[in-house]
Amino acid sequence: MEGVVNGSNVFEESVLPVGAVISLLESCHDITGLPWWIIVASSTLTMRMTLFPLLVLQMHKIKQISVCFPKLPPLLPPPLSGRSYMEQIIFFRRERRAICCPSFSWFLAYLSVQFPCFLLWMTSIRRMSLNDHPEFNCVRE
């Protein structure tokens, strides 16, 4: 097969974000000369501090939503009201905009950034520990 070279998948080697994180960690290790555990811990803290402003913004929006939520009509039409689901949703959106309530998708904003960053981080560290860096691996022969 052309996709496998020296026991590793060519596609895995060409994944740009993982390679970029590995290169960043390697360059930090080379420049500072610090042990790997300090590089991993400090870069994890750096990533968390980078995501912190988004977390604060999300908490602010959720606070605004919690203040506005009791003032909003129900999302689904009340029984026997004669309104269709679409009419009730349109009415709900109009009322939400009238009282300047943020979108409910702010509940997912932090997760939609944090979760991919976490997966990228764990994939990069795992790839470093399995393949490229014997000094990074904890198992000694």
From TrEMBL:
Organism the protein comes from: Salix udensis
Name of the molecule in the record: Uncharacterized protein
Localization terms from the record: Membrane
Keyword Protease among UniProt keywords: no
Gene Ontology biological process terms in this record: protein insertion into mitochondrial inner membrane from matrix
Family according to the record: Belongs to the OXA1/ALB3/YidC (TC 2.A.9.2) family.
Keyword Transmembrane: yes
InterPro entries according to UniProt: YidC/ALB3/OXA1/COX18
Membrane topology of this protein: Multi-pass membrane protein
